[in-house]
Amino acid sequence: MNWKKAFWFGILLFAVIAFIRLSASSPEDTETCVSGRGDLAAEACTVIIVGKDASVDGSVMTTHTCDCGVCDWTFRYIPAVDWPAGSTRKIYHIDQFHAYPPEVGLKWERIKDNDTGLEIPQPAHTFGYIHGSFGYMNDNQVAIGESTIGTQKKMENNTPTAKFDITMLTLLAMERATTAREAVKIMGELAEKYGYGFTDTGEMLALSDPHEVWIFEIMPVGPLWTPQSGKPGAVWCAQRVPDDHVSVCPNESRIGEIDMNNPDYFMFSPNVVDFAVEQKFYDPKSGKAFNWKRAYSPNEVSAASSNGSRVRLWRFFDLVAPSQKFSPEIPNMDLPFSIKPEKKLSVHDVMVMTRDKCEGTPFDPARGLQGGPFANPNFLPYGFQLEDQRYSTSRIIGVNRAEYVTVTQCRSGLPHPIGGIVWLAFGSQDTSCYMPFYIGVTGIPKSFEIGDHWTFSRDSARWAFDYVDFHTQVLYSLAIEDVRQAQEKYELTAVERTPGIDGLALEIHKKDPAKARQFLTDYCFNNASAVINAWWQLGDSLLVKYNKLWIYDTATRKRQPLKFPDWYLKMLVEHNRIPPQAPEKR
Fold it and tell me: How far is 452 from 65, CA to CA, in rounded Å?
């Protein structure tokens, strides 16, 4: 075979293999797009929301589980800037799901390649903030959590006419907002004027400050929109969560009926009802009140009807108000917007909740055969296809594909640099560790700024946690106990240490705010370094302890066999038809 034939044969073989792999893949495997971005969007990100009077210490809290599975996980700290008169801010298209290979450059430098051509006036001062895939908190303790909620198909606008996507909106909110309410107005007005969509469909943001928290939902208005139309380039609505309530957004629209005469609890775009009427999503002659989620992002399923693939909403209410015994049969759209929890929540309670895997419910993914002999809840994280039938599996809060998880605390009664904390855990929640970053820090560790799913690196903080996660999966029920001991030592201790750090920082701040910021920076960097080093060591110890599916005791230098559960051995004997061993003759 000459080289030309060999070349074309290779191309043909590659195409055939690629076609076979694609044909054999399920929608969940390929994470194909539903409502524009598909299961990747529709099933990624859980946000938990806690009002100030629903928390044990008066914190307003939000979370964000960034559980894309393939997205960029790097973080940045952006300092505050004073701008000369006439300065402008370039607007970029930022795909929240895209990650660049390390050899072509880091995401937050490469976004400059996606210039929309739009520049807007820069304010005299922009605030400092911490961001990952989205902005998470700024100097004023304005904090954000994000969840994709999808929208009606014909509302999508993936044309470049829409200048803003959700990531860019959050960065502008971080740079400009002094309160959560102001963040709502900033993002809403920018989206109306310049158009929203491009890479994003329906999105929800939890917007908080030390005093209140809002659920903000925004949708595109279709691909035919132009600025010259004179119509808003987005439709949006925001509802305030009562101070003594908690709420959740698990990739489902959460706002129902709107009280248009109550600006203390509702904000919305001028086209909020008219656009729904125009698109025939709502008939004002029906006699029914306008309902935001039923018009723009309907979702007629329940935890039970979806076999757990839509269990997160029910599970949250089951956790925070167990005595109400919400039925998993209740359609998700009929569950309340928010609820008063039966006990006030601490920041550690919220961290634990981000790890919830529906334990003790019919939706527990570790139950029976699915979890295997060592009760691994991370098996079958997606539904599957068998003999032309589709099957769903539980999509839990603590899903195993998180890039990172944030828990933000906004606290009144303290100067902003001390009051605001972003707790960050890289990788899957169950095997990771939350690390505090006060908003008063002057930077973040370099190891947080680098890393990629496809390139292992000991220079990237994220890989330390994936290293532990990998060694936990094989013997989950055993190894997770080692991980929990480390979490108690490093995570729970950091939570308990917070009041003392607050007090020390406050004393320094009274004399010299700049020194207080340096103190907080040193504390956060040192703590993160200790945690990351501990997790590398934990990964090493798990490898040794459970090597070759035995148990190696490093203290006694002895090895013992692994004990498999009886139920598994019985199934093995039955399925493989293994005969019992005959007694030895003596």
Answer: 18
Check: CB of residue 439 under 8 Å from CB of residue 416.
yes
Which strand (E) or helix (H) includes residue 408? strand 404-410
Distance, in Å, from the CA atom of 137 to the CA atom of 209, rounded to the nearest integer, reads 9
**Structure-block tokens of residue 436:** 């505090």
Q: In sequence order, what are the residues at sequence separation of 6 or more whose Cβ sits closer than 8 angstroms to the Cβ of residue 74?
A: 106, 107, 108, 132, 448, 449, 450, 451
Report how far residue 253's alpha carbon sits from residue 148's, in angstroms, rounded to the nearest whole number. 9
Q: Are strands 60-66 and 143-148 parallel, antiparallel or unpaired?
A: unpaired
Can you tell me the distance from the alpha carbon of 313 to that of 225, in angstroms, rounded to the nearest whole number? 33
Closest CA to 333 of 299, 290, 307: 299
Strands 266-268 and 246-249: unpaired
- Quickly tell me which residue has 């080093």 as its tokens: 533
Take residue 554 and report the two structure tokens written for it. Answer: 């490093």
CB atoms within 10 A of CB 92: 18
Angle ∠(253,256,258) on CA atoms, nearest 5: 130
CA dist 431 to 364, 404, 455, 484, Å? 18, 11, 20, 8
The b-or-e profile of 163-174 (16+ CB within 10 A means b, else e) is bbbbbbbbbbbb
At 336-356, the pLDDT tens digits run 999 999 999 999 999 999 999
| Per-position DSSP letters for 118-147, written without gaps between them | EEEEPPSEE--EEESSSEEEETT--EEEEE
Per-residue pLDDT tens over the stretch 274-316: 999 999 999 999 999 999 999 999 998 999 999 999 999 999 9
pLDDT in tens, 79-110: 999 999 999 999 999 999 988 888 888 899 99
DSSP helix/strand/coil, 164: strand
DSSP states of 325-354: ---TTS-GGGS-S-B--SSPBPHHHHHHHH
**532 CA to centre of own chain:** 21
- pTM, two decimals, is 0.91
Cβ 572 vs Cβ 501: under 8 Å: no
- What's the number of CA atoms in the CB half-sphere (13 Å) around residue 560? 5
Listed in sequence order, the residues at least 6 apart from 581 whose beta carbon sits closer than 8 Å to its beta carbon are none
Contacts of 331 (CB under 8 A, 6+ apart): 300, 301, 302, 305
Question: Among 137, 207, 209, which Cα is nearest to 174's?
Answer: 137
CA distances (Å), 56 to each of 64, 319, 354, in order? 20, 17, 18
